[in-house]
Specification:
heterodimer; A: 330 residues; mainly alpha; MetI-like fold; 2 domains; two-stranded antiparallel sheet; 14 helices; 2 strands; globular; B: 524 residues; alpha+beta; Dipeptide-binding Protein, domain 1; Dipeptide-binding Protein, domain 3; four-stranded mixed sheet; 15 helices; transmembrane (chain A)
Amino acid sequence: MLAFLLRRLANAVAVMLTVALIAFVIFRFVGDPVEMMLNEQATQAQRDALRERLGLNASPAMQFARFVTNAIQGDFGISYRNQQDVFTLIAERFPATLELVLVATILSLALGIPFGVVTAIRRNSVLAQALQLVSIVGISLPSFALGILLILVFSVQLGWLPGFGRGEVVDLGFWSTGLLTASGRKALVLPSITLALFQITLVMRLVRAEMLETLRTDFIKFARARGLPDRVVHFRHALRNCLMPVITVTGMQIGNLIAFALITETVFQWPGTGLLFIQAVTFVDIPVMAAYLVIVSFIFVALNTVVDMLYAVVDPRLRMQGSGGGGHGG
Amino acid sequence: MKSLKLMLAATAAVMTLSTAAPANTLKWGAARDIDSLDPYAFGSTFTLAFLNHVYEGLVRYDANLKIEPALAESWEIVEPTVWRFKLRKGVKFHNGSDFTADDAMASLKRISHETSPLKGNLPAYKDARKIDDHTVDIMLNSAYPLLLNDLTNVFMFDKEWLVANNSELPTDVAKGVEGYATHHANGTGPFMLESRRPDAKTILVVNPKWWDAPRHNLTRIEFTPIASAPTRVAALLSGDINYTEAAPLQDLQRLQASPEVKTLLSTELRTVFFALNFKDRLTESDVKDKNPLKDRRVRRALYQGLAMDQMQKRAMRGLSRNTGALVAPAIPGYTPDMDARLPFDAEGAKKLLAEAGYPNGFSLSLVCSTDSYVNEEEICQSAAAMWARIGIKANLSSGPRSIQNPKRVKGEFDITTLGWANEPMIDAYSILVQVMHGKTGSAGVFNWGNWGHPRIDELTDKAANELNPEKRIPMMSEALKIAKEEILFLPLHQQPMAWATRTDVTGAVQLSDNKARHWFTRMK
């Protein structure tokens, strides 16, 4: 187990360094922050002086070394655009994104699993066919289009739900939550559905495929032969055996959602990290972009590691292989 | 049934009346968030316009865009390089302390500091001295006519507040340490900061102790950035916001169709034109040995190849104002005869090109961004199509401003879009010194393509030190006319601005600098 952990750790460091390098290379092509920071009245001398003070004139190697050294110490500097500490800036936005992602994930499991089961056990029913059709829409409809559609229907036409923002939030010191107020919960509905639709269809299709597989296995046949009711066969025996890959995929997708919630966040003006990142790109706010990429890659690496470790805990076969030195994930 | 409905409606009306009357909340949905609460943080006109509700300068623009006293009651020019300001007495900051000469001194020192990104907003400033508690002298490097214009955007801080919070100097991004003024505000303006959540909501409440008699009847401003245009439109239609300074042009018809929404349309100060490469070679062309754009006939052909009526109708949806001038009518220096354009004449343009030695035209690069000016991408696409008809093959490079601007600055273009609003000074001197003047000393920062004319430089330098407007403004007009006569640029239009409000917002004052001034706004 220790060797496994150490190997994962070395992997993680390598990934993080690669991300830092790629991020750094990208920054050399995103534009000139100085042109964005000063207004039309600034003279050339003022522009040059600012560029010098920001260290943009140093050699690329020097700049990279400084970037990595600072990042290791957790010092990402302050934002060029709003002069706030970058780490605080991201930490402030993070609860919004995480709440959105968690609600979307819960939605995707709560809806995706039953839908998957239904489409698997009643393969030819009208309901299953309809769900299959909707799931194709869910996979192919871009989330910004869905978001705007939802806003037009539920916010403009019906006036039931707010079309933007987070509503009232409650500050718990280190965490700001919208879950404790009515307006905060209402504000969550549309963005979380927008974000979850793709996940719902993903989970549904996964469960369906796994169920179809499992329903063909011998132990299900035996269970049926024993005369167990269908409900028990389907939900207690078959479904349980399908959940491993669902948990894995969901775990991995949380990272994806955190990183790619930015479209949903832009459409709904959801004050999360994705919105922050989009703005940083527009304003060539290099410190914010750098920190965002590093933090997101850290989340990915951490989730990956945790999922791999869970695998080893849950599946005894992997544990044996792991101590033997080989080991490949399911 | 009918009477019941009526009764319900009546009760609802009474209820809304009784609840809405005391609280007039302007719910402002903006296209972007302000960058910071610190006005000296980032060179952004939008942020300054917003913060002007909280902070004020010594002078300000009135509802006709004329300069009037604000925190200074009066001023005189003691010597050509020394201006004396009498400060208004009895003005209090939101934290209760008095506004005095010390505050003005501290504010001037802060904005003109080496590390202040807004140092350029006060170009002639040398030093200031306190005469007494309510008198300040501002010393300048040379005689300079536009000090008042510049001061409209130099907001006054409370010195004790700055000292107490260790913020006497502007925040230096290079040092990587946050400043107190980034998160807090303490001005003298008509509204006070209640709270701010970046990207979510910034709330201002009315300042009951404002020194001026308020024309507005607002009690509260809730400012919410909504970056996505369709979401903003939806919010306005559903009543979640009741004012936006950025109604998307493509949705205007939809907004106008709603009985609950009013649109305010006009054109702004910003004049958009094409700037040309005047260097020895073109950057991307089949003509390798010389620069055809140095030939006035070629420039004229490009000018007359533009069917501006068509562009105005298609690309700008009929909302822009076509012009032959390089500044808007409200800018001192403009004269009505500048407005006339050379007519669209594709045949004539072809002849001019043939005369200049390019009967089959030539190719060049056209560098545009997607987010600097209104419908900029459409402008460039239609211009490229029109030029193709006279034989000029413009290779369009389009991208976000952050990517395209460095190319412009380095002169890596043959034709590029450039828009100039002459803000914050609202005077043609701005475009003359920053754009048209040759790159010498601090002038010509935006002279990206090496264009210009010796006489323009001469007139601009003279106007810089001329305090008498009777003499100064004709100098600037003459310089602008040379640029027009020589076709140094290809003027296009003043770009449209579109605000939209719900019908309960009655008196929003929209001036051509496109800044919201809610100390004029009234609600039903």
